[in-house]
Please model this.
Amino acid sequence: MDARVGVAGLGAAAAGLIFLLANPAPAQVTEQPVRGGNPPVITIPEVSPPAAAPASLAERPRTPSGAVDASTANALAGDGADDRRPPPPAGPVAPPTPAHGASAVLRVLDKVTAETMLFEAPIGRRVRYKSLVLEVKVCVVRGGGEARPEPSAYLTVTSDAGASSGAALGPRQVFKGWMFATGPGLNALRHPVYDAWLVSCSAAAPAT
Model:
């Protein structure tokens, strides 16, 4: 009786082993106790293949040992990148010093007689034309090296009507300021009888 039971138990164990080998359990280990004191049957789980490396790591090119990639080289260069920057802009250039003339060339118009007079007035000296007395303080030329220089003069004009008419009238200042040869109307003499304007500056005055 016991022999038949042992044979039957071995047959059942063999059938169970065949069934387990044909249908393995996924990723787990099971123990099947067998009657008759036989050791348990162990089912070995399937081993899944290793996962593929991420595409970003698989496609990344490898650099030789000791080599430095381009981004690291640029970071290490550091100060060398500054050498490629354009130089800072230069500061403002000072305008050229105007040339001072020894005298001013003036033109005066008598509106009553339509007479004009072109004359030279030395710097610091009083020059009379009929009842006008003109005194030039300074005459300068800006942009002397350019195609169209800009002469200007600072002068005073006094009207002394009593000198020619005999009337007891004192001198009266009718103009004081700058006259411009390239713009006679910017600061013109306003007089009922005379007009006066700057034509140019004469040769440069000696340096002091």
Residues 1-48 form one domain.
